[in-house]
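Appendix B. One record, verbatim.
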Amino acid sequence: MHFLLSVLLLNTILFFVYFFIFYKFSEKLKIIDYPDNVRKKHSYPVPAIGGLIIYFSLVTQVFNLDISYNLKIIIISSSLVVLISYLDDSIKIGILPRLISQVFASLIIIGFNISISYIGSYPIIGEIYLSNFSFLFTLFCILLVTNAYNFIDGIDGLTSTQFLISLLIILFYIYFENPENLKSIDIKFVYILIFLSIMFLLFNLGLIPSKKIFLGDNGSNLLGFILGWIIIYFALKDYISSTLCIWVVSLPCIDLLRVFIDRIKLRKNPFHPDRLHIHFLFKEKNYSNSSILFLLSFGSVIFGVLGYISFIIGGDILSILTFVIIVVIYNLSVKKFLS
């Protein structure tokens, strides 16, 4: 309880300090999100400073945080992702530099022996260790999660809410697998991220009037990058089972893969922004932002719980099979929704 209160106080102070700094200089930093006729339908320019506030709040306290050295490496390595994403927010440098920054930042972390090496035990085949493929598979997963959270950033509160739910699902899994692990120093970092994301939501959803802010690419990429590495690190530490990892981030990742496939079918650049994402499809059907936020949040919670139930009942094999079935049902449902 003492730790939670200290987290609350320190991060409230840090959040507001960086909020007023970046809000005041957002125009000079060229980090204001202007409406357009394609995807950005907000009615007035909004500072896209959420990611910078969260990042600097973390970095300010990183060396004094009572968490593992590896988690500090993840925070520090995310600096490259935030920097390049900030440049994309301000001067539009494109997707390629962002991907390169994610790869290089990931290579730093992999260099500290944090990667996916084991993906479960299955009938007939037995335990699967990735060995030499660990490096490539880890990179693929990080790029998938990072960009999934970036791509789903289309309506107020969606990315940060998905991020918050993912963190809560991690705590849910840890509690039911081994509640003693909730006392680990590493879990403190999850509490800090939960609090900072809630603070951001207060501004992003307009609960604090006249001071609306967006995450920006710097924020959505930061949240996805850090979340991806937290999941990998926690699986490596046996806080959660490896086959549960994909369930933590299921909805954003499934929708990213669906959008990529649809864009390729339409012979479009899979990284080119459009309105094929699930939240935009709901918008086309005249759902309100609050309804979309609730439905997708509820969907993520259901996926997370379903993943754990399938794992408890049938282990790794049923968990993976259930995930594949969910992917198929999701894609068929979206197609039917569009028809």
